[in-house]
UniProtKB/TrEMBL annotation:
This is Fructose-1-phosphate kinase. GO terms for molecular function: kinase activity. The keyword Transferase applies. InterPro entries: ASCH_domain, PUA-like_sf. The lineage of its organism: Bacteria, Bacillati, Bacillota, Bacilli, Bacillales. Residues 58-113 form the ASCH domain. Pfam families: ASCH (PF04266). Keywords: Kinase, Transferase.
Amino acid sequence: MSEMNVNETLPAKTCSIDRLVTKEAEVSKVLAGQKTACRRNGRYADIGETMDLQGTSFTVTNVYQQALGELTAEHAKQEGHETVDEYRDSILAMHPGMPWLPQMKVWVHEFKKAE
């Protein structure tokens, strides 16, 4: 299925790609190649869409939903963390009062440096 067809099967975006990675620490991880995915409670980008971070472009390569309980150490590494616990603690520190529920679905946005 082409990028266009995949994007047509996804629900409408809830935010724009320029809001996908905004915190300075997260931007630094992306620029250093330590963060290659961003999980959000809404869909921020289409596959093939490009975001610009400090003059460097990154292309979204995949967008899909995932339950928090499905996260593995590899997923945490995509987010720039060593373990799922470290990633969870980081998210909860950014969003005080947010519950971490294994069945809660998030949108995964995977990306790579644009060629």
